Every structure is written in C-alpha cells, then in structure tokens.
Amino acid sequence: MAPQLDGYFQKVDELSDKFIDRLRQAVAIPSVSAEAARRPDVVRMGQFLADELTKLGASVELRQLGKQEGTDLDLPPVVLARYGNDKSKRTILVYGHYDVQPAQKSDGWDTEPFELVIKEDGRMCGRGSTDDKGPVLGWLNAIEAHQVAGIDFPVNLLMCFEGMEEYGSDGLDDLVYAEGKGFFADADAVCISDNYWLGTEKPCLTYGLRGVNYYNIEVSGPGADLHSGVFGGTAQEPMTDLVRIMASLVDSEGRILIPGIAEQVAPVTPDEEGLYDGISFSMETLYESLGSKTTIFDDKKRTLMARWRFPSLSLHGIEGAFSGSGAKTVIPAKVIGKFSIRTVPNMEIEKTNEAVVRYVEEVFSKLGSKNTLKVYPQHCGRWWVASPNHWNFSAAAKATERVWGVKPDFTREGGSIPVTLTFEQATGKNVLLLPMGSSTDGAHSINEKLDKRNYIEGIKLLGAYLHYVAEEPMN
Ligand SMILES: NCC(=O)N[C@@H](Cc1c[nH]cn1)C(=O)O
Ligand SMILES: [Zn+2]
Ligand SMILES: [Zn+2]
C-alpha cells in the first residue's frame, strides 16, 4: 500500500538539513502573540510562512481580522493557502499556529529562546520548536519533499495558519464559520498537528481536548503604588485581598473549591473505566516530563483521568505585583490575578462563568474590604470530543504504523485548541489531532524543544497520512 512512500521517506532524510534550517529561521522570529510590542514579529512570521508557501507553488492569501478585542492593535493575519486543485483527489484541511508563548532567557532557559540550538542528543531547543512551528513547517516540508522526489502529491491541501492561538484565537472563529462553505468548502476532513504524545516512545492519535476558560480578578484601591513604611497598616492592600481570593479557588490536591463546577462534569461510565489500562503511559515518563515527582496522584489511571476528563484550575500569575529579585517595599495599587479552568464534558462556558463570578464576589464580600473588585472571563474555548471511528483516523493509524512501526494509542489531551470544535462545526467534517512532538518537549515552558527524530519522522508521518487518506474507502 502507498507504494511511493519509500521514495518520499528517502527524500525527507536527504532534505533534513534544509528542513531544520527552515525551522531555525522560524524560531528566530519571536512571534509572541501575548506581547503587544512583539506584534510586528507575529506579522513577520505570517509573512515568512506565506513567502515559503508561495515559493512552493501554493496559492496564498493573508486574511486580515481587524483589531484585537479591547485594543487598537491589529490582529496578525491568518494565512490561508491551497496546494493542488484536482477534483479527482480528496482535500484535507490542515490547521496550525505560528504564534508562540512568551520567552526570555532570564526565565531560566539554558540557551537563547529565539535561537534554535541543536544538542548532541538531538534535542532542537527553541521557543515554538514543538508548539507549533515544527508541525506547521512539517506540512510545507512534506510538499517540498514530494516535489523534489518527483512524487505526485496525493491530495489537495488547504491550509489555515493563525497567529493568535496562544492568546485565545481572537477573531478566528468568525473566519472559520464564514469560510466553512467558502474557502474550506472542499475539505473532506481536517487534521491538526498541535499536541504531543503521552510519553516519549509511543505515538498517539488524539480525539479529545479540554476547553479553557481564562479569568482576570482585578483588585484596586489606592490611587498609586505606595510606600509600605508610610502607608502599611493604614491602607487596605489590594494584594492581600487578591491573594486570599486566589487561595480560595483550589486546594493543594487540585480540588476546585468553586460550587457549580464539579456538578457539571459527566459521570464516569463503566466502559470508560476500562479504557485507561490499555494506554501506554508510565508515571516514570510523567516524572521525566514534569522534572520532579510532585504529582497529585501516584497511579496512571487517576492521573490520566485528571488530565483528560476532569476539570482543573491553575493559578498563573499576578499582574502589577512586584516579582523581581531584591526587596522593593511597595504596596501595589492595583493587581490582576490570572487563573484558568480547563473544562470537560458536559461543562458549559456560561454556567461556569456564572459560578466563578458568583463565588469570587462572595469570597471578596466576606473579606469586608473597601477595595474594588472586578472579575471577568478574558477568553473561553469549549472542550471537544470526537469519534475516532472514521477513515481520517484509520489513515493516520496506518501512517503511524508505517513510519514508527507501532500502532498508535487513541488518546485525549489536557490542553486546549478551541478552534478544533469550530472546524468540526463549520465544515461538518471529521477532525483528527496528529501530534509530532513528545511529552518531554516542554511546550509553554523553559527549554522547549522538538527532538530531531520527531521532526524528521513527523514530516514523514504527515506525508504518509496524506497518502493513506487518498487510499481510504469513504465511510
Ligand atoms: N498547543 C495547544 C496549546 O498550547 N493551546 C493553548 C491554548 C490557550 C488558551 N489560552 C491560552 N492559550 C493551551 O494553553 O492549551
Ligand atoms: Zn499549540
Ligand atoms: Zn501552546
């Protein structure tokens, strides 16, 4: 089956230095969507992709999305591209994002985050290497390897690459819904490569994601930051209120203390109980990914359930708080606490928001503080669970076995890619998550990396998947 694949694989190996260089160029563009000052770099990264795709012969459009909500900042463009328009072939729509999480060497990185540094053991370190520049470039590299090998591209490829995923995909949903019957109308299925294997050796295909509701809690009081010697003990301090509110959201065992959250979670079914044992996942690999043994649970099943099918609440930070080294004796006038809830079936965005706002206001009112509180969701994206019983998943499973020599696990994921559900609803087609990187890649963390092996074999995997898609009978 898929007879041209050996020639394709050989060409990917031959071109591997060129493909790594393409990733090096992409990592060097600090396309951090969360930082206003970096917006020109995000736009530059979109342009880089558009130029590379144009050179490969794709037709490319940079779609403007208007202003970022509540700001004067232009949103970065969505790169929409088409490669091939042969009515006798299937059409696959792929999505990825070219923005990255913030990173600074001083966060604790061993090397400059926006320089791709290749270690002797094959780790390619750099912000965005695995999330999501490596996988996005994987599609471009697959096109190039086919061209150089002289192998006919097996499908028509539609591409949608956005630059705001790490900041809530502002503006993308409207575009995807609008183009469901437009630019994306020909799509027979959707494939997203923006997640990770559960461990470091066994590949997986993913059919579920948690959603995310991200919140701000603002507490303000004094008109300006104050000297704590002069005003300590006389002014009510916003940070004191905020820390007490934040401490009331979740306990050290990860239990969410907000009434109205656990009540929305779908009960565990007997069928589901048996699902976890068959999954290749070890606590040892988790400890390696975590860099410590500080897990809430000691066993695989409860750990996987906590990641996939129960909600979690994480405290992320406090804007306006002193966080440098040294000993600044300030009372911050206004602080904004940031936290998010990863949501699961059958939680509803609005119901969850209402429960959060009600609870935070109640806790604050019990403090008897004269400060002012505002609590509001910053962005929300729904959870997604799909059926893996579809030719899209069968093709990916065959490709995985061909490239990695092992049948993939079928997994869910704790992270969120809210546009996944939007693609499913807008196109009415099956969506598959086909990861390239592994659990130790450290996405969003310091020293993010993509192993050279996962990048190169991942390029083979994406191409092989398209060949098997072309061979699958419709179901
Ligand atoms: N690779 C997917 C990913 O990292 N998604 C982000 C999405 C997000 C939501 N709010 C901010 N980023 C995630 O954190 O899961
Ligand atoms: Zn991502
Ligand atoms: Zn991410």
Summary of the model, kept short:
The chain is an alpha+beta fold and 475 residues long. 35% of the residues lie in helices and 20% in strands. It has helices spanning 5-14, 16-27, 39-55, 129-149, 172-179, 228-231, 238-247, 270-273, 283-290, 300-308, 349-367, 391-404, 419-427, 452-471, and strands at residues 59-63, 78-83, 91-97, 117-118, 123-125, 156-162, 189-192, 204-209, 211-220, 226-227, 312-319, 330-331, 334-343, 372-381, 384-385, 409-413, 431-433, 449-451.
Ions, cofactors and other ligands present here are: ligand LNQNZP67, zinc ion
Give the overall form. Answer: globular
CATH class of the largest domain: Alpha Beta
CATH superfamily caption of the largest domain: Zn peptidases
**Proportion of strand residues:** 15-25%
**CATH topology label of the largest domain:** Aminopeptidase
Give the overall average pLDDT. 96
State the end-to-end distance. Answer: 19 Å
Please state the structural category: alpha+beta
Number of helices: 14
Could you give the order of strands across the largest sheet? 1-2-6-3-7-17
CATH architecture of the largest domain: 3-Layer(aba) Sandwich
Largest sheet: 6 strands, mixed
Number of strands: 18
Radius of gyration: 23 Å
